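hey
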């Protein structure tokens, strides 16, 4: 699908520009749904942020596979996934998922599907930054969410 974009990058992203691409010249879409994930403090007061690692090439391939699965299930006009890597501090943007579809219900479902599968299947490794750095393990709740589809 020519209307899928996958970006893995260190630099921040502009949500307004991403939204604009999803709706640009897209007269058959009645809905654009976006999700933006942020780095949040879920540990202790010494948590400063995250450091994300990935395997270039492999990560993009995994994200494209997730996007293609979504396009097989829903009538998606455009889909854009952006995921940041490297050093990210509290409140930084970490992930963006945007979907445009003819109808809102399928746009919401497709965006949720992409995020649920991304959390389960995308090869990113997260390390907490702070006084006691540690690798973040995958949560069972994330595995359970993806299995519901």
């Amino acid at each position: 699908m020519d209307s899928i974009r996958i970006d893995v990058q260190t630099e921040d992203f502009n949500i307004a520009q991403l939204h604009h691409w999803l709706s640009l010249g897209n007269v058959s879409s009645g809905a654009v749904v976006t999700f933006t994930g942020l780095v949040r403090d879920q540990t202790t007061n010494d948590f400063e942020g995250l450091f994300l690692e990935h395997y270039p090439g492999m990560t993009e391939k995994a994200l494209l596979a997730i996007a293609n699965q979504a396009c097989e299930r829903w009538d998606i006009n455009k889909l854009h996934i952006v995921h940041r890597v490297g050093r990210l501090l509290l409140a930084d943007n970490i992930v963006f998922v945007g979907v445009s579809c003819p109808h809102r219900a399928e746009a919401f479902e497709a965006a949720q599907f992409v995020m649920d599968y991304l959390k389960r299947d995308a090869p990113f490794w997260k390390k907490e930054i702070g006084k006691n750095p540690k690798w973040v393990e995958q949560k069972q709740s994330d595995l359970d969410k993806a299995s519901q589809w």
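The chain has a mean pLDDT of 94. The helical segments are 15-23, 58-73, 104-121, 140-147.
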